[in-house]
Amino acid sequence: MGTILTLMMLLCLCLTTNSHEAARIIEQEKEEEEERQDFSSKPNWNNNNNRRVIDVKGGPESVVWVVQLSDLHFSVHNPDRALDFNTIVGPALSMINPSLVLITGDLTDGKSKDLLTMKQNEEEWVEYQNTMEDVIKRSGLDKNMFFDLRGNHDNFGVPAVGGSFDFFSKYSINGQLSRHGNVNSVTLQTSEQKHLFVGFDSTMSFGLRGPTNLFGHPTDQLLAELDLELSQWNSKSIKPVTKISFGHFPLSFSASSNSGKSLKDIFLKHSLSAYLCGHLHTRFGKNLKRHHQSINHFLSLPKHLQFNIHQMSSGSTVNCSFEAPPVEEFWEWEMGDWRKSRAMRILAIDRGHVSYIDIDFKSGTRNTIVLPTFPLDSRLMSTSSSRRMYECQIMLPSSYDSVRALVFSVSPIVSVMARIFDTLPGNLYLVWESSMTKLVDNTSRGDLYTAPWNYKAFEDPSPDRYWLQIEATDFLGRSTLTELRPFSVNGLSAKLSWTWKEFYVMGCQWAALYHPILWSTLYFIFFILLTPKALLIYSKKQYTFKTFIANKGFINGIAWALQELCRVPILWYGMLGYVLHLIFVPWFIGQVFADGKDREYMTYMGWVIKSSDGRGKHEYVGSPDIMVVVLPHLFFVVLPSILVIGFLAAERAIYREYFLSLSGKKEDDFDQGKRSFLLYGYQGIQNSKLRFGKRWIRKLLLVVCLAICWMHFKSCRALVKAYEMNPLIHFPGYSFSIPLLLAYAVYKSRNI
Fold first, then answer.
1. SS3 for 478?
2. Would you say 354 and 347 are in contact if contact means Cβ atoms under 8 Å apart?
3. pLDDT, tens digit, for every residue of 446-495?
4. Exposed/middle/buried for 397, CB within 10 Å: 0-12, 13-18, 19+?
5. What are the DSSP E strand ranges found in 426-465?
6. 419 near 432, Cβ under 8 Å?
7. 609, containing H or E segment
8. What is the pLDDT of residues 345-361, one digit of tens each?
9. Start and end of every Calcineurin-like phosphoesterase domain (predicted)?
């Protein structure tokens, strides 16, 4: 009986175990079936119409590629931009056959012919719509593959999204396909991997006219939606997921949200492969790239400035323990503009390795384009995570076993050669050469060429010792060479420094720097105005021409000039009052929207705008965008005016002393050495005809005054055109205070 009971218990245990195992297997098969159905189905949209999955059909299975275009700036004043776009881009897309086409903002120009009035022009939007329809038709691509974003130029003077002046919602591809959200995502999936692309619109909710519409303004809601979209496959997919985001503004020109969060925080959290953007064009340089990495730092400097493309040195030790936290990092790749550079980018993802090539179409179409997909450029594509995967031997070996390149051509390709050069001898020395073979697929989307190699032979502690070049030759004998690019199979990053202009636009976090720069400047202005006055009133130490002669020096000269300014009450109180006016009084009142209904006013903190219901107001709109008006005025008008007025007062004091010495009224006050110092063009002062011709320091200061007034006039003229203002009515203090103070200082210096 006990034996029977024991057998029954074992049987029940086996049945229970088998049932659990069967349930697990059924659940696993169900997930795999859903995955297969998802892979083989047509593109799907979720309920909010902003999330899509695309099955990438055809080979090569291991690679997908997309095209990025940015800053088209279609303009009624420059029809060649749209004409060239239609002529070049359509055939190029047909040749490249990308899975997506991303257009990252500034679709239209929105500027007058003199570039000073900035608001939407519907004619430009109609031209954009017609051009894109032609390009899509000539490319042979599905319209759903195109994603366009709003840039700041597409938002000039737009009071509200969806209103009568919001032409983006009416004429853009996203608008026509009902992608109305601020965040849209699309997943390209192959049988091996998922590739998630998330685009977002961070333009300001109130579309101010330029020039105070320059920055991206992500809200907390947008950041939450972006976080959600980037997380959509975290727990659902058994395939590896490569995440890429695209927007218009570089992070250096993106503000933080009201809660202090930033796009960088979200991107680091998800360890994006890359963030693609535009906005800056190519006039600042070609290396507008930046590697971001999460670092713990006690100082706030890294939040404001990054001095090199790479935030950290690649020489740090790799932690291979399982407890080591994942590396939080991502690349930011700004691309050139179509407006002048006729630039296009092809970006490829090859088994998780992300590479790109920027193409310049200024010289016309291209017959052949070659994009190396592995190994990666160690200057602009290597990551700390790839180095860790290699050194800890957790990478996929099959992704390292060959040199690979995509070749796009209008003509049949007869040969592709890969060459590796060693720079250790001091010159380029060819150490490896191999013919590349095309992967054959009956339903190929494009041509991927590979060449097997022993990648371990190229391990080296130097990230730029070995350089790769690929050459493709078509049947007509035309050869296309890629640029030499360094690579590091062990994932080290080669050092690449910015130029000053590149650092200025990519390394400075301008939204975070605006208020420190503003208040430092204002404190300095108050210091140079109030300190000499306090010394003049409360201290026995006086800065005069005599003390300057006795102790010459730059600081003494400045202090003497500023104290001479204090001795002219109208000028001193005038400058102090003007600076206080800039702090406590609106700078000007203008039309910030294209509807022309209400006038709003601007302070150094931002625009104050009435709410749509008229019951309240929105403050600090357009901050830090207003820095393009505020800081140049302080740096190039206010500060120079204070100094030049002080020097005019000092020059007047010198001239007065010299005149009195010649008249005999103060002969005892001057020795011969001091008098010779005074003779700097004042000889013959008794002859009034020579008065202006001989005072060359005063003449030089007059030229400086004219330069300041000219710069101020140009700024006022631009503001008048931008916001439809009358200087006498809408900003008299801003317009006339400085010229009047300079004119009075010049007049005062004429008399002794």
1. coil
2. yes
3. 999 999 999 999 999 999 999 999 999 999 999 999 999 999 998 899 98
4. exposed
5. 429-435, 437-438, 447-452
6. yes
7. strand 606-610
8. 999 999 999 999 999 99
9. 66-282
